[in-house]
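Recall that a protein's primary structure is simply its ordered list of amino acids. Everything else, from secondary elements to tertiary packing, is in principle encoded there. The following example makes that idea concrete.
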Amino acid sequence: MRRSYMIVCAVLLFSISGCATVQGFFKSEITVDQAIIYKNRMDKMSNPAQRQLMKKELDKKIVVVPRAKVVNIIESMNVDYKFAVVVRVETDKGPVDLYLYSNNIKLIASLQTDSSEISAKGDFSKFFQLLDDSYIKIELVKASINKL
């Protein structure tokens, strides 16, 4: 009887908590530096199928940003979100810009460009580059942002 009660409670807990939370529970965390290592490996691959496999592996990761300064808050380029918080992290390779997509509009509204510091975690989405001074840009979705 007690065992069946525990199973019912576990099923209810998972159904209430939502799919995103459950998926995040099974994803491993990496740092920005580790994400750059993946990027460098992908750039050296000549086989696009190998790059795709590495991208799928990265899709199963949560990138952790322990401390970063807010550089900008922009309207989203991602159709699933309204705004993005742009932060810059210094790495061995140079500055890396992270585009953090979150639906927490109240928190995003409370942030100040060039003065707010945050910590964040988000699901890896993609690497991209623009013509500016950053080494690389990383897009993180489903970001959990905490004001420091």
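The beta strands are 28-31, 61-75, 83-91, 94-101, 117-128, 136-147. Residues 30-147 form a domain with the OB fold (Dihydrolipoamide Acetyltransferase, E2P) fold (CATH 2.40.50).
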